[in-house]
Amino acid sequence: MSTTKKFINEPSNAVDDALDGLVNATQCIIFDKNCRRVTLRSDYTEYCARGLVALIAGGGSGHEPFAAGDCYLNEHCLSEQHIDLFYLPRIDSWNLKILVISGSYVLYLGYIGSGMLTAAISGNVFASPPSRHISAALNSTTTRGGSILFVINYTGDRLNFGLAAERYTRAGHHVRIVSIADDVAIEASKLSIGPRGLAAAVLIIKIAGAMAESGKYTVEQIESMANQLSKDAGSMGVSLYPCSLPGFGQIFEIPKDMMEIGFGIHGEPGSRREPVATAQHTVDIIMTKLHSVISLTKGQRIALLINNLGGVSQLELNIIKSEAIKWCREFTNFFPSFVLNDVQVTKVRYL
């Protein structure tokens, strides 16, 4: 298996080198003094002193900007004011569905800052961070408002975040866990821990971040909202090319004339393979599946995220966006209340 070409130095140092670049390029993210795999919003001391709810997420590297990145989303794409106006007035009667189309993948580091995460933990590429690193993030962001750990539904993440939460609770602190499981490609009954977690986490964390930053909501209210949105979210991906790890070759092969429907963000098999199709047909496959699982109704408020996993041009993304919006209008007679077409959760291929 030949090594794929990537712009890195030593494969074993790729994650730490990437974190150095992210932190050194911005003033809104800093390293935790006790663990350089933990990154914090630069004003975390003041934030926690205000008694606001701390929001923490993490996972394997290779999905950037999720969760480690450049503060782009919270400053430009989903402003706190936008979220306040769109979601928070109806906090007692949520009626929002999240639909995600995910194509070739980014995860937590880019979502630290005002109106989003308080801290993020980066594991090795495609590997859950160890529980001691998660504990370091919890200990550095202790606040009387309590903490929420956002966990993407994978076995390693659930185990390690769960262990850290248990230790933190035994120490007398208040922490909740929100597990995000939005993948609709494979029936939950066929997966031992339920549906996989995908890019819906981006919008769920943004909404939770706006609530936490406002200081108007308790940890229980934010947890309840996030859990409800997780239940009402659906994601499905399609890939034309396989992913690969730094220093290694491709994890799997996809024939040149085929595409993988419903693959996982670490290269897990999808639900099936089909011949490469037009954007219109591909979007129809995904949206039809999302519609069948999420049970959309006329007048339903929808946030539509079209996520670029890292290998799709902006021209292609705009075509996909057009087809997705047309599908919504034709089949459900509504226009999405919010549309985001961007690189939010990625997979390593061109690292």
TrEMBL record:
Pfam assignment, any one: Dak1
GO biological process: glycerol catabolic process
Coiled-coil intervals, chain numbering: none
GO cellular component: cytosol
Catalytic activity: dihydroxyacetone + ATP = dihydroxyacetone phosphate + ADP + H(+); D-glyceraldehyde + ATP = D-glyceraldehyde 3-phosphate + ADP + H(+)
Domain DhaK: from-to ranges: 10-351
Top-rank taxon, per record: Eukaryota
GO molecular function: glycerone kinase activity; triokinase activity
SUPFAM superfamilies per the UniProt record, alphabetical: DAK1/DegV-like
Record protein name field: DAK1 domain protein
Organism per entry: Dictyocaulus viviparus
